[in-house]
Amino acid sequence: MEHDAISANVSRGGLKSTAEIKILVLYLLMHVDEPVPSNQVSDLLHVEGIANTFEVNDAFHQLSNNGLIDAIDEEGTAFIINAKGRDAAQTLQSTVPFTVREKSLKLLKKMLKRNRNIRETDIKIERNGNGVYITCSALEKEKTVMSFSLQATDYDQALRIKENFLDDPSAVYRMLVDMLTK
């Protein structure tokens, strides 16, 4: 394919064709069952050196204008694939290298899981005279199913606790239940 896309910060093996970037976006949307925020996908693919952020944002815009994906919000920031887009993705997906497709899909699923974890948790970090306290809560339908508070040695440690909790709050829940019910 012709190299017609902006290739700033795109690694070797990354996508430098606008057509390939559009196909990758369709491929990604075809393989997830929830709306995908375009700005996060463009940032993710850019940081990983897969495609230029401006090209990815433009791909979302063009695919939407061409009726291959649908915006699910009025601002046009999150998208799902429709039947026309799914047909195109299935037909054209092999034009994007397998390794790029698989790496991108793995990164997207991790990002979407992290977004869900953020929505389904409540984390507060508070400083007081004796140190830094962090409270982590797992929510289900806005109801707290687990909550714990810790005193951290400093703010950086509290941030590490927050990040690790956000990685997999259900694993923390399972571990606590297992430990407390033995």
Question: Would you kindly provide a written description of the structure presented here, covering whatever features stand out?
Answer:
By secondary structure, the protein is α+β, with helices and mostly antiparallel strands. The protein has two domains: 18-115, Arc Repressor Mutant, subunit A (Orthogonal Bundle); 120-181. The chain is built from seven helices and six strands, in the order H-E-H-H-E-E-H-H-E-E-E-H-H. The protein has helices spanning 18-30, 38-47, 53-65, 83-92, 98-119, 155-167, 169-181; strands at residues 36-37, 69-71, 78-81, 121-128, 131-140, 143-152. Strand 5 (131-140) and strand 6 form a beta hairpin. Helix 1 (18-30) crosses helix 3, helix 2 (38-47) packs antiparallel against helix 3 and helix 2 (38-47) crosses helix 5. The radius of gyration is 20 Å and the shape is elongated.
Summarize the structure.
The protein is 52% helix and 20% strand.
* Gap from first CA to last CA: 60 Å
Extended strand count: 6
What is Rg? Answer: 20 Å
Q: Which descriptor suits the 3D outline?
A: elongated
Name the CATH architecture of the largest domain. Orthogonal Bundle
Oligomer: single chain
Stretches with pLDDT under 50, minimum 5 residues:
none
Q: What composes the largest sheet?
A: 3 strands, antiparallel
Number of domains as seen in the coordinates: 2
* Mean of residue pLDDT values: 92
| Percent in strands | 15-25%
Strand-pairing-aware structural class: alpha+beta
In N-to-C order, the SSE pattern is HEHHEEHHEEEHH
Helicity, in percent?
40-55%
CATH class of the largest domain: Mainly Alpha
Look up the CATH topology of the largest domain. Answer: Arc Repressor Mutant, subunit A
Count of individual helical segments: 7
Q: Strand sequence of the main sheet, in spatial order?
A: 1-3-2
